[in-house]
Design a protein that fits this description.
Layout lengths: L1 H18 L2 H7 L2 H13 L18 E4 L6 H5 L7 E4 L1 H7 L21
Antiparallel strand pairs: 1-2
Length: 116
Protein backbone atom coordinates (compact mmCIF):
# COMPACT_ATOMS: atom_id res chain seq x y z
CA UNK A 1 0.00 0.00 0.00
CA UNK A 2 2.82 2.42 0.87
CA UNK A 3 4.56 1.73 -2.44
CA UNK A 4 1.38 2.45 -4.35
CA UNK A 5 0.93 5.73 -2.48
CA UNK A 6 4.56 6.71 -3.10
CA UNK A 7 4.22 5.93 -6.81
CA UNK A 8 1.03 7.98 -7.04
CA UNK A 9 2.73 10.92 -5.31
CA UNK A 10 5.73 10.81 -7.66
CA UNK A 11 3.42 10.69 -10.70
CA UNK A 12 1.40 13.66 -9.40
CA UNK A 13 4.54 15.71 -8.70
CA UNK A 14 5.89 15.06 -12.20
CA UNK A 15 2.62 16.20 -13.78
CA UNK A 16 2.41 19.25 -11.52
CA UNK A 17 6.02 20.30 -12.04
CA UNK A 18 5.73 19.84 -15.81
CA UNK A 19 3.31 22.80 -15.81
CA UNK A 20 5.52 24.94 -13.58
CA UNK A 21 8.53 27.01 -14.67
CA UNK A 22 11.71 25.07 -13.75
CA UNK A 23 13.07 28.18 -12.03
CA UNK A 24 10.27 28.03 -9.43
CA UNK A 25 10.43 24.25 -9.08
CA UNK A 26 14.14 24.53 -8.33
CA UNK A 27 13.46 27.25 -5.76
CA UNK A 28 10.70 25.34 -3.94
CA UNK A 29 12.93 22.24 -3.82
CA UNK A 30 15.94 24.19 -2.52
CA UNK A 31 17.32 23.73 0.96
CA UNK A 32 17.11 27.49 1.57
CA UNK A 33 13.32 27.44 1.00
CA UNK A 34 12.76 24.28 3.05
CA UNK A 35 14.70 25.72 6.00
CA UNK A 36 13.08 29.17 5.75
CA UNK A 37 9.51 27.90 5.39
CA UNK A 38 9.89 25.46 8.28
CA UNK A 39 11.39 28.20 10.46
CA UNK A 40 8.46 30.51 9.59
CA UNK A 41 5.92 27.84 10.58
CA UNK A 42 7.76 27.14 13.82
CA UNK A 43 8.05 30.85 14.66
CA UNK A 44 4.25 31.18 14.73
CA UNK A 45 3.80 27.84 16.51
CA UNK A 46 2.12 26.38 13.42
CA UNK A 47 -0.85 28.77 13.77
CA UNK A 48 -2.61 30.18 10.73
CA UNK A 49 -1.98 33.90 10.31
CA UNK A 50 -4.76 34.33 7.77
CA UNK A 51 -8.11 33.30 9.25
CA UNK A 52 -9.56 34.13 5.83
CA UNK A 53 -12.28 31.51 5.77
CA UNK A 54 -14.94 30.20 8.13
CA UNK A 55 -13.50 26.68 7.74
CA UNK A 56 -10.02 27.79 8.84
CA UNK A 57 -8.49 25.01 10.92
CA UNK A 58 -6.02 27.33 12.58
CA UNK A 59 -3.18 24.89 11.91
CA UNK A 60 -0.66 26.39 9.50
CA UNK A 61 1.09 23.91 7.22
CA UNK A 62 1.92 26.11 4.21
CA UNK A 63 3.93 29.29 3.74
CA UNK A 64 2.56 31.92 1.37
CA UNK A 65 4.49 34.69 -0.39
CA UNK A 66 2.60 37.97 0.06
CA UNK A 67 4.28 39.35 -3.06
CA UNK A 68 4.25 36.51 -5.63
CA UNK A 69 7.67 35.21 -6.59
CA UNK A 70 6.61 35.34 -10.25
CA UNK A 71 7.11 39.13 -10.13
CA UNK A 72 10.59 40.73 -10.15
CA UNK A 73 10.01 42.31 -6.72
CA UNK A 74 8.65 39.05 -5.33
CA UNK A 75 11.59 37.06 -6.66
CA UNK A 76 13.97 39.43 -4.89
CA UNK A 77 11.99 38.95 -1.66
CA UNK A 78 11.43 35.18 -1.98
CA UNK A 79 13.25 34.47 1.29
CA UNK A 80 12.39 37.77 3.01
CA UNK A 81 10.75 36.98 6.35
CA UNK A 82 8.34 39.95 6.03
CA UNK A 83 7.08 38.62 2.69
CA UNK A 84 6.05 35.27 4.18
CA UNK A 85 2.78 34.28 5.82
CA UNK A 86 2.00 30.97 7.55
CA UNK A 87 -1.41 29.69 6.44
CA UNK A 88 -3.62 26.64 6.76
CA UNK A 89 -4.51 24.91 3.48
CA UNK A 90 -8.01 26.45 3.34
CA UNK A 91 -6.71 30.01 3.78
CA UNK A 92 -3.90 29.41 1.28
CA UNK A 93 -6.46 28.25 -1.27
CA UNK A 94 -8.44 31.46 -0.63
CA UNK A 95 -5.28 33.46 -1.43
CA UNK A 96 -4.94 31.58 -4.76
CA UNK A 97 -8.47 31.27 -6.21
CA UNK A 98 -7.08 31.19 -9.76
CA UNK A 99 -5.62 27.75 -9.13
CA UNK A 100 -9.01 26.26 -8.32
CA UNK A 101 -11.23 27.67 -11.06
CA UNK A 102 -12.94 25.00 -13.08
CA UNK A 103 -14.00 25.52 -16.65
CA UNK A 104 -17.74 26.07 -16.92
CA UNK A 105 -19.53 23.06 -18.36
CA UNK A 106 -22.69 24.13 -20.21
CA UNK A 107 -24.32 20.75 -19.56
CA UNK A 108 -24.06 21.03 -15.77
CA UNK A 109 -26.27 23.18 -13.56
CA UNK A 110 -24.53 24.79 -10.60
CA UNK A 111 -27.01 24.21 -7.76
CA UNK A 112 -25.44 27.00 -5.73
CA UNK A 113 -26.75 29.53 -8.24
CA UNK A 114 -30.31 28.18 -8.40
CA UNK A 115 -32.78 30.23 -6.38
CA UNK A 116 -35.06 28.33 -4.00
Amino acid sequence: MARREATRKVKYNRAYNAKRDPKYTKFYNSKAWRVTSKAKLQSVNWKCEGHLHENCTGLACEVHHKIPIQTPEGWDKRLDWNNLEALCTVCHNVRHPEKFKRPKDDGVIDLRTVEH
